[in-house]
Design brief:
With 313 residues, the protein is mainly alpha-helical. The protein has one domain: Vanadium-containing Chloroperoxidase, domain 1 (Up-down Bundle). 63% of the residues lie in helices and 4% in strands. It is built from ten helices and two strands. A two-stranded antiparallel sheet has the order 1-2. A hairpin with a 2-residue loop joins β1 and β2. α1 crosses α9 and α8 runs parallel beside α10. The protein starts with a helix and ends with a strand.
Length: 313
């Protein structure tokens, strides 16, 4: 019996790198969720303080349950945009320190992990054209969950919600679209242009940055898009299999982007964290508007610490 040793080694390396990126993306999502809980909840852990008419308080460990909303989607989109994009203005010193440590961790991945992982991906690439490989059809299809396929999923939630009179499914579609617009359409796009990092396929090295020079590798828009949708779905449903499936598909999008030479690992991890943070923030913020209850949110600005009342009637 003859064994194709190079083929076995190549397949093993491919599996190892895919597993490493899956684990890394999952860790990024968990880190983003932990950071979100820290930034929003503070030391006491309870983020809601409802009015007397509210049924119960909701802690950071619970998943919000969407109610039918009388608030129009354009209004929610506008309120979410203001809420998410102005979030850093509400951070206190401790929150800025945590954000700084997160940025330092991403920089560490750039310095230590990006090059060896990308070199490994290049060795196992099926041909010389990373954009049109011959035998990675599966990864090509998975990669589209970072763009059009995930929009199709959100459309499916909306149609199912409309047909079944399911407010939660409709909320997934609305919150998912908003999160994609903010995470992938605005935040990562602006950051890409400002940072100007070259993509791996351009073979300029891991440290080639030219701000506003046209390169747009950091962070990954596909990862931000996929993890924003995954985060929204996971935070609307309590089932463990829903959470695992959502984040697994999003992680595979990151694997595909690395495999095709579109992004370094640090690009993908940064995009995953952005998408997860934005998705969780949008779901929670819209919950208060849909419920019509008064919600007190922590507010911190230079020289002032307090709470902000949010309600919708």
């Amino acid at each position: 019996m003859r064994y194709d040793l190079p083929g076995i080694i190549s397949a093993s390396m491919r599996t190892a790198f895919a597993a490493a990126l899956l684990l890394g993306s999952a860790c990024a999502a968990q880190a983003a969720e932990n950071e979100y809980d820290f930034l929003r909840a503070g030391p006491k852990g309870n983020i809601y303080a409802q009015s007397d008419e509210g049924m119960s308080s909701t802690s950071t460990s619970g998943s919000p349950v969407a109610e039918k909303s009388n608030v129009s989607y354009p209004k929610m989109l506008w309120e979410d945009t203001k809420y998410v994009l102005t979030a850093p203005a509400r951070w206190d010193e401790q929150e800025w320190k945590k954000a700084g440590w997160t940025a330092l961790g991403i920089a560490g991945v750039m310095a230590v992990i990006d090059r060896p992982v990308q070199d490994g991906m290049r060795r196992i690439a099926p041909d010389n054209d990373p954009l049109t490989p011959d035998n990675s059809r599966f990864l090509h299809e998975v990669e589209r969950f970072g763009r059009e396929y995930s929009l199709g999923v959100l459309g499916g939630f909306y149609v199912a919600g409309a047909l079944r009179d399911d407010g939660n499914a409709i909320a997934v579609a609305q919150d998912g679209l908003t999160s994609v617009i903010l995470a992938s359409g605005i935040i990562t796009t602006v950051t890409k242009v400002a940072v100007g990092r070259a993509r791996p396929r351009e073979d300029k090295g891991v440290a080639h940055f030219r701000p506003f020079g046209g390169d747009q590798s950091f962070p990954s828009g596909h990862a931000a898009h996929a993890f924003a949708v995954a985060s929204v779905i996971a935070n609307h449903y309590d089932e463990t299999w829903v959470t695992c499936t959502s984040y697994s598909v999003a992680s595979l999008v990151g694997v595909a982007r690395s495999y095709h030479g579109g992004h370094f690992v640090s690009d993908i991890l940064a995009g995953a964290m952005i998408g997860t943070l934005v998705g969780k923030s949008v779901v929670e913020h819209n919950q208060s508007m849909r419920s019509g209850k008064v919600v007190l949110l922590p507010e911190a600005t230079p020289g002032m610490v307090g709470v902000r009342m949010v309600s919708s009637f």
